[in-house]
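Q: I have 110 residues here and want to know how they pack in 3D. Can you give me a structure?
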Amino acid sequence: MAIGKSLGITLLEVLLVVLILGLVAAAAIPHFVYSAERRADECRSNIALLNAALDHHGAKVRGLSLGGQGDLARLIEADKERFPKGMPKCPYGRPYDYDPATGHVIPHRH
């Protein structure tokens, strides 16, 4: 080994690594925040679609109320125009809850 050569890491190299990690984090964090907002918007949109389908069903069949979650699933399966893929799922993986008292799908927290 030559005299005067060091095998250690210089302060400049450490600062360069910290700077690169900071730039990567600054680029990645907004993406994750936007992704969470997008999933919440999609969940609210799904609930609005489900409630519109329920209102449409109520207009077609006066006096008939859905008894529970199973009846909601059957209604959604029958409405292929609005729900071609069947029962929508919350982007967070939670099922949508139907309130028979109000006749609507109720929002939930994520």
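Q: Anything worth noting?
A: Residues 42-105 form one domain. The chain has a mean pLDDT of 79.
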